[in-house]
Every structure is written in C-alpha cells, then in structure tokens.
Amino acid sequence: MRYAIVIEKAGTNFSAYVPDLPGCIATGGTLAETEQGIREAIGLHLDGLREDGVPIPVPSSRVEYIEVAA
Asked: Is residue 16 classed as helix, strand or coil in its secondary structure?
C-alpha cells in the first residue's frame, strides 16, 4: 500500500503524519530521519491495527500542489 504523508518544519526539527492513519506521527532532526521514522511508525501502526482486529484503512488521501501568485 502507498500512504500519503505530510512533513512539516517544526522549529528546529521536522514532524510527519499520515492523514489516512489518525495518530500515526513521527519526528526527526532531518528530513531523512523524519521519513525513516514515519515509515517505521506506519509499520507499527498497521501491526497494531492487525493485532486489535481493526480493518486496515485503504489509502485515500491525495496530495497535489496548487500554484498561486505571490
């Protein structure tokens, strides 16, 4: 499966979350650390859902960029 993630600058570090997996978050000091952290967080999150017998959400979020005049 392929989930959309959002990475935001958060002061001196970065934070990431998955819109289709509420509560699935990660932080890191660099973009690479944050990407690796959210990848691991998704895996743990899905494992927890399976253990609890909860259906795995189908990825449905879509990411697009919109250009606007500055």
From this structure: strand
How far apart are alpha carbons 15 and 5 in whole angstroms?
10
Which pair of structure tokens corresponds to residue 36? 């690796």
Angle ∠(55,33,67) on CA atoms, nearest 5: 80
Give me the CATH code for the 1-70 domain, please: 3.30.160.250
pTM, whole model, 2 decimals? 0.90
pLDDT in tens, the chain (70 residues): 899 999 999 999 999 999 999 999 999 999 999 999 999 999 999 999 999 999 999 999 999 999 999 8
> What letter represents residue 48's amino acid?
G
Domain boundaries, the chain: 1-70
Give the 3-state DSSP-derived string for 22-60, with helices as H, strands as E and coil as C. CCCEEEECCHHHHHHHHHHHHHHHHHHHHHCCCCCCCCC
